[in-house]
User: What shape does this take?
Amino acid sequence: MNQRDHWSSRFGFVLAAAGSAVGLGNLWKFPYITWHNNGGAFVLVYLVCVVIVGLPIMMAEIMIGRKTQESAVPAYRMLGGKGWSLVGILGTLTGFVILGYYTVIAGWTISSFADCLNWSVSGYSLPADGAFGAFLSNAPLQLGLSAAFSIFTVAIVWMGIGGGIERFTRILMPTLFVIMIILVITVFTMPGIGQTFRFLFTPNFKDLPASGILEALGHAFFTLSLGMGAMITYGSYLRKGDSVPRVSFMVVFLDTLIAMLACIVMYTIIFSTPGLQDDIGASTVGMLFITLPKLFYTQMPFGTVVGPLFYLLVGFAALTSTISLLEVLAAYLIDNHGWKRHKAVLTGGLITFISTVFCALSLGAVSGLSSFEIFEGKQGVLSTLDHLASNWLLPIGGLLTTIFAGWMISKKIALEELGLYDAAGHPTIYFKCWRVFIRYLAPAAILVVIIAVIRGVDFS
Ligand code: TRP
Assistant: This one.
């Protein structure tokens, strides 16, 4: 293993890990689940989950990866024995589930990009009512878009860590950030901004359904790429000298910031545009793809340029996430089964694409795949898999991670890897806090939520 590929610098790691974290979870999913759960109280619960559960687990996963220099399955085996490697396997399977449907949504960015390009050249025309529904149920189009996105993902992971993943995220992430800032500045001049802040920051717990609490917890895992070994895998390519707490904090901070900004931008457009709220009501899932074009083409001075550029960047944000998901599968085949990178990437990509096909056809194209309902309100393969992965598999994986990092890994190893000791070698206050969080608070929080939801408790 002495030839293991590495990130070229700490900055490269932060960007790649932030690239994994910042994705459709922030730009597409967070705004629509927050809308669904009536804002305020949901946002607050989510932020609490990020601090109590997200940050400590982020540190734990990166630490496990960096310590072992192995991806999830062998990393767990090395530190905890054969039984624990099952947690890595569960994580790898979860990654497979997520990548399958994530690719479908990611494919939509290609079509929005093309639409915007077209509008920029030949003028904006308001899409007809129901246009988005027709788009979703168009089988050849959905399959084509997902196939294109899978190919991009496979191509980059094929090129490896430094030469593929890092090289791309280094350009993509800063550009995404700049565009986001431009959008935020634009919406601050719109009339709906006050209502947006009231919606997001005045918690009213009566509005929050019990299932919303599990959803907030699950989303904290999803958006931070935690609970399935992705950060273990990325951490395994981190050099020894880099500070784990510092990079963890930066990734968590950037991810949360982008999610909040995305809500501010989207809600302000919705609150400022008469009639838009009704359109959205019919398809909250499409918020990112329905609301923003109106902003670009009717409100923004340079909207014709920013419009296409924005969807290009959403696509890139999604791409830096899909590559992290595929990297987990590939790293498993490489580290655990000794496969060559190219064979592992191609096989992982192809197997996942089978699941993608089912998801792509579950948006109305094939009614048998689109209309069944296992989880309340989640219809069809895509929504069911999303609910299963983010609300159940990730929190369970995360719970096992806290137990592993807090109770199985010795204090000495954790202290060494996290580097949180003073000149005399004594643990700092930060280390003590981390230990309390990872051993007690985080697992307790996850357990309470999971048990409460299983027993059907209504928190409101
Ligand atoms: N965090 C990404 C997003 O918000 C999605 C993602 C990438 C992910 N890698 C992951 C989710 C690993 C869970 C686990 O879009």
Q: What stands out?
A: The first helix runs from residue 10 to 21. The two ends are 52 Å apart (CA to CA). The longest strand covers residues 373-375. Residues 27 and 262 are 6 Å apart (CA to CA).
